[in-house]
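Re: the 256-residue chain
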Amino acid sequence: MTFSLLGISIGNTRTQIGTFVAGNLNQPVVVANGDEKALRTALIDAYEPVIEDENAVVLIGSVQAKVCDTIESIVRTDLQANPLRVERDVNIPIGRQLDREAIVGEDRLLNAAAAFDSMSQAVAVIDAGTAITIDLVDGAGTFHGGAIAPGVAMQLNALQAHTDQLPETAMAQPEEPIGHNTVEAIRCGVYYGIRGMVRELVEQYAVILGAYPAVIATGGDAELLFKDDELIERIVPDLTLQGLGVTVKKAMEKGE
């Protein structure tokens, strides 16, 4: 099914903006949340390919209320369009087995919807961003939730902020599993700690399911952490945007 869509995924620190033309996602751009001028420019540029389509949709998924308000205002004033919000105006097409009052980030649900739409089987979804989430979708397409942990930058900042001697450290893949100096030891702890956590959780999910799920990773640190990890079947940097596309496609199929 073809559709025209300006998809906007607002994360904790950055916003991904992507244009779907004839149902296909063009190369998305990423902008820091605090740069309103760059956000405005990126939104105007991204909207141009679909502006002639009177049925074009602007759809936003957000975990940052203040940034979302800013972007909605830009869309209305500069793009002269009426933005829709997932879960407010259109539901993310993923089943859910959660506690009755559970509130789940829209990014996690969008990732789950895109992953299941792509794989059509049970899948563990890793999002390595400001926080790291490891979520499970079963073979029927039901999101069960998962685990949330501090991301790379958060771990590095916490080590520096809450100790007297550990230095500020820029993340890089460790040279080897044993750090022979303080900086390399910090990198080893964060890098292998995250990979070990993911592996352990996926193994626990496999026990629950009775079979191993497929594993997809996304997020700004996914390539650094998992590019050579045989556990990860795919790294999909634009998975959340793909979830926005799946949301529109499913809504159109249902005539919404």
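The chain has a mean pLDDT of 96.
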